[in-house]
Amino acid sequence: MMFLAMWIQADSTDLKTNGAAMKIYLDVSCLNRPFDDQNQTRIRLEGAAIGAIFEQFDDGRWSQVSSEMARIEIAANPNRRRRVRVQLLLPDPDKIVILTPAMFDRGAELEKFGIKPADAMHVAAAESAGADVLLTCDDRLCKAGQRHRAQLRVPVRNPLDWLKEIENANDSR
Fold first, then answer.
1. Higher pLDDT, 12 or 87
2. Rounded to whole angstroms, how far apart are CA atoms 83 and 99?
3. Which of 150, 141, 130 is CA-nearest to residue 73?
C-alpha cells in the first residue's frame, strides 16, 4: 500500500479541477474493499488503492462525496461489525447527497442501459454531486460505464485502474 500512496502523493498536487479539490465518489463496493478477504491479489491491490485514495482525502488533496444510496446499502448489511466499519468511511454529512425525485428519474434512465438499480442511483448521485469520477470495484458497473460513457455525466472507473491512469497522465506531462 505504501508504494501507491507515495506516487500518488508526489503526483497529485496538480490534480485539481478549476482550483478545487477533485471530487471522488466511492460506491459501497469500494468502501467494503479494505474489509474483504485480502488473500486474493486483486482484492489486496484494490484495497491498497482505496487506502491511498483515503490518504488523499485526509490530506485535503481530494474530496470524497457520497449519497444516501450508500447509507441505504450499508445499512442493509446484516454483519453489524462490517456495517459499522464501512459507515466510518463515509464522508461528513454535508458531503452526502440527498436523493431527489430528479435523481430517481435519472436512475431510471440509466437502468435502460443495463445498469442495476442501486448502481444507477450511485451514478445519478455522483452526477448530481458534480463528482469528477465514480470509483467502483464492480466489474459489471465499470463495463457499463465504459460502454455508455457518452451518456454518463461522470466517468466510472475501477480505483486501481483509475490510479494507474492518473500516474500515466502525470508521467506524460
1. 87
2. 21
3. 141
User: What is the separation of C-alpha 148 from the centre of its chain, rounded to a whole number of angstroms?
Assistant: 18
Residue pair 1/155 in contact (Cβ under 8 Å)? The answer is no
pTM (2 d.p.) = 0.88
On average, the pLDDT of the chain sits at 90
Q: What is the pLDDT of residues 11-22, one digit of tens each?
A: 444 444 455 789
- d(CA 133, CA 39) in angstroms, rounded, equals 28
> Do β-strands 16-17 and 156-157 pair in parallel, antiparallel, or remain unpaired?
unpaired
DSSP state, residue 131: -
Query: By the 8 A CB rule, do 53 and 24 touch?
Result: yes
Q: Tell me, what's the pLDDT at 4? A: 44
**DSSP state letters, 72-85:** HHHHT-S-HHHHHH
Amino acid at 51: G
- pLDDT beyond 60 at 40: yes
Cα separation, 60 vs 34, in Å, equals: 21
**DSSP element (H, E) containing 63:** strand 62-67
* Whether 23 contacts 95, CB under 8 Å: no
Map out the domains of the chain with their CATH numbers.
2-171 (3.40.50.1010)
- Strand 16-17 and strand 20-26: the pairing is antiparallel
